[in-house]
Write a structure and sequence with these properties.
Elements: E1 3-7, E2 10-12, E3 18-25, E4 34-39, E5 45-51, E6 57-59, E7 67-72, E8 77-82, E9 91-97, E10 102-103, E11 107-111
Parallel strand pairs: 2-11
Antiparallel strand pairs: 1-3, 3-8, 4-5, 4-9, 5-6, 7-8, 9-10, 9-11
Length: 113
């Protein structure tokens, strides 16, 4: 089955850290660029970060220096390490395959004291 399944979300205090994972199945993960996007309550989708098939990484200005995207092609898994979290990072986080677009079901991240 072709799918993406995110995990690792939760409730964290401001300044804390979380690491999200996205397990891919049913397709050749290593040949695709992969992206993290997020959707805050009442807002549209926001692009967060991208890693291409060669391992080059790109970040939105809002997360640059705090978040790190990575991938393990042998495990067919995408990661997002999130440090120095802020309340404005609260959102549902989705991993997304680029090209023939595919998106997971999302994982909730809530940053609150």
């Amino acid at each position: 089955q072709v799918q993406l399944v995110e995990s690792g979300g939760g409730l964290v205090q401001p300044g804390g850290s979380l690491k999200l994972s996205c397990a891919a199945s049913g397709f050749a993960f290593s040949v695709y660029d992969m992206t993290w996007v997020r959707q805050a309550p009442g807002k549209g989708l926001e692009w967060v970060s991208r890693i291409n098939r060669g391992g080059n990484t790109y970040y939105s200005d809002s997360v640059k220096g705090r978040f790190t995207i990575s991938r393990d092609n042998r495990k067919k898994t995408l990661y997002l390490q999130m440090n120095s979290l802020k309340p404005e990072d609260t959102a549902v986080y989705y991993c997304q395959r680029e090209g023939i677009r595919l998106r997971g079901q999302g994982t909730q991240v809530t940053v609150s004291s």
